[in-house]
Design brief:
The complex is a heterodimer of chains A (427) and B (176). By secondary structure, chain A is α+β, with helices and mostly antiparallel strands. Chain A is built from five helices and 18 strands. Chain A folds into two domains: 79 residues; 338 residues, Porin (Beta Barrel), CATH 2.40.160.10. In chain A, 18% of the residues lie in helices and 48% in strands. Chain A has a 16-stranded antiparallel barrel. The longest helix of chain A is centred in the N-terminal third of the chain and has 44 residues. Chain B has a five-stranded antiparallel sheet, sandwiched between helices. Classes of the chains: A alpha+beta (427), B alpha+beta (176).
């Protein structure tokens, strides 16, 4: 454009010495030239706009294929949608490696460093409303003869999404009881290990075969369903609930149990939940008539700014304790257990979080032992276990966590303090 | 029981779109039913991106943004920025609805390809309302994390910062 102006000035300067017809000829040529340049500019802008639009449309189509209505590759829309649709396979995982140094009772416990969990999620979307999700676990380094490690399927279920108020989950499911059982990734809790209340009173990680329905009504989410019951023949003592889990491996299905859960989003910063599990656990085995297990809990999670508070109370009972004790003759069986914990964490920034957790639980508040020698029942109770965890989390990345804590561990009256370190991740 | 489930499955629409809400519907829901929605492709050059990155304090990989403009009586009421980010291994795309003062009005998740239980709930998305480029939006401090959907929380929080800074730069550099 600048050049054009200069030429115009030159032409104007020359014009005085030119013939009038020469002048008009040059003017006409100049006009034609300007027109041509404008045409080229418009054409360039149009093609660059078209190119931008095409790239933008392609980007949108790539991100959300369903929004595009054009046919690609000459196929019909439906066919090209399948052709270009996102892969229905989804993979994720989490895990942790823990180091535990026992500071008191070295005679009983030895220090260990454990590849505690290496877990992989695999999900597959058959349709938008039929979705498979699974979790496959390798615990304590996986399984080899003579090791304590194992590999199990923690859940493998298909969700049928019907409407927000009513959906169905079918297959091998996480039992929706407690706080940790549904949110057990290491980045979800502060201490190296999960609270023991959610290990012995609520037997996390708790998974079983069955059917759940779930949905949302306003600020309340619900879950209700049926799963294979516990197996009273398996658990006793402190493990009267934990030991009775079947884990979906050839689960006996003579008795089913009811499970229910409500999550109330009371405030922006406060969630309150309650859940229960109840059902017979005889599984038609001789001598266990009338034995049934029940677990219920209440918990709340408060998050405001950098403060995070979690509190939970859980209670577990066994009905038909005489038959339960007789079946496990000469071993203590528990018919009552309860526990609670409070966890307070403060996020100094996105990386550092100090925390404190106090818990008090007793999985053997009321025990019964059937003594075969005297053919009599002996009742008893154990002392509470009290654990105070003081620790620090460091997140070099939001999905990578390094944890350190010291446990003031009062094991039914005996000091068993420990120092724990852990590396955890989720992806 | 099983017959009931089967009946429910058949009777309900199994062909619902994966799109949770269309961008134009999201614009109308937040800027009013009577608006006209225009679509504009905004191409930011390297200089613009560097400026936006400085504001967002996040890396911006895209140069081209599809921006929806809400107009009423020829007056611009606000913008909608589409932004896609990775959650776990799959993407989510959300639209960030921003007013002419570059203040966030709302976020709507448009498409989500991870299992739906990781979709951030609406009540969680609400805490971003009123955010500007001045807000740090630090997860676990300014923004509560979502129990059970940490990765989604991260993706949306980062996208919010990026969407706000893109609009700020686009307005400042006369690209909108």
């Amino acid at each position: 454009m600048k050049k054009l102006t200069l030429s115009l000035m030159a032409i104007t300067a020359l014009s005085s010495s030119m013939q009038a017809d020469e002048m008009s000829d040059i003017k006409a040529q100049l006009k034609a030239l300007t027109q041509k340049m404008n045409d080229i500019e418009a054409k360039n802008e149009a093609s660059s706009n078209a190119l931008i639009e095409e790239v933008s449309a392609l980007k949108t189509f790539n991100a959300i294929p369903e929004l595009a209505s054009k046919s690609y590759t000459g196929l019909g829309y439906a066919a090209s949608k399948v052709f270009y649709s996102k892969s229905p396979l989804s993979i994720g995982g989490y895990g942790k490696v823990d180091y535990i140094h026992f500071t008191d009772d070295k005679s009983k416990d030895k220090d260990e460093i454990d590849n505690y969990r290496a877990i992989f999620y695999i999900g597959y979307k058959f349709t938008d409303n039929i979705i498979f999700n699974s979790e496959i676990e390798f615990e304590h380094g996986g399984s080899i003869d003579g090791s304590s490690g194992y590999s199990i399927v923690e859940f493998a279920a298909i969700d049928f999404l019907i409407k927000p108020e009513f959906n169905v989950r079918l297959g091998h499911v996480l039992v929706p009881v407690g706080h940790i059982n549904l949110q057990h990734e290491p980045t979800m809790f502060n201490a190296v290990n999960r609270p023991e209340t959610e290990k012995y009173i609520i037997p996390s990680t708790w998974h079983e075969n069955g059917i759940l329905t779930y949905g949302t009504f306003g600020n309340v989410d619900y879950t209700a369903g049926l799963v294979a019951g516990l197996d009273a023949a398996r658990g006793n003592g402190k493990n009267s609930w934990r030991g009775a889990r079947q884990g979906g491996r050839d689960s006996k299905a003579e008795d089913f149990a009811f499970v229910g859960r409500l999550d109330w989003h009371a405030l922006e910063s406060l969630d309150l939940s309650t859940s229960f599990f109840t059902g017979d656990s005889a599984q038609s085995q001789a001598g266990l008539d009338g034995v049934g297990h029940t677990v219920w809990e209440l918990h709340g999670v408060y998050k405001e700014g950098p403060v995070e508070l979690t509190a939970l109370y859980a209670n577990a009972t066994v009905d038909g304790e005489a038959n339960f004790a007789t079946f496990h003759a000469n071993k203590a069986t528990s018919s009552e257990g309860s526990g609670y914990y409070i966890n307070a964490a403060y996020n100094i920034n996105e990386k550092w979080t100090p925390f404190i957790r106090y818990e008090n639980y007793n999985a053997e508040e009321e025990t019964l032992t059937f003594d075969t020698a005297t053919a009599s029942y002996i009742s008893g109770s154990a002392k509470d276990t009290k654990i105070t965890a003081l620790g620090l989390n460091y997140r070099p990345h939001p999905n990578v966590i390094l944890k350190a804590d010291y446990l003031f561990y009062d094991d039914k009256g005996t000091d068993d303090d420990r120092l724990e370190l852990s590396m955890g991740y989720i992806f | 029981m099983f017959r009931l489930i089967l009946l429910l499955l058949i009777s309900s629409s199994l062909l619902l779109s994966k799109v949770l809400i269309r961008p134009d519907e999201a614009m109308r829901a937040h800027f009013g039913e009577n608006i006209v929605v225009y679509k504009k492709n905004v191409l930011l050059v390297k200089k613009d991106i560097l400026e936006a990155q400085k504001i967002a304090k996040r890396k911006i990989k895209d140069h081209l943004f599809r921006i929806f403009i809400a107009k009423q009586n020829n007056k611009v009421l606000g913008y909608g920025v589409l932004h896609t980010s990775k959650v776990r291994t799959k993407d989510e795309t959300s639209i960030f609805l921003i007013d002419t003062n570059v203040k966030l009005k709302a976020i709507e998740v448009i498409a989500f390809y991870e299992p739906p239980e990781y979709i951030p709930p609406k009540r969680w998305l609400k805490q971003f309302t009123g955010s500007t480029t001045q807000n740090e939006l630090k997860l676990k401090q300014d923004i509560r994390s979502i129990s059970g959907a940490t990765l989604s929380a991260r993706a949306i929080t980062d996208s919010t910062k990026i969407a706000l800074s893109i609009i700020e730069i686009a307005i400042k550099n006369s690209k909108l």
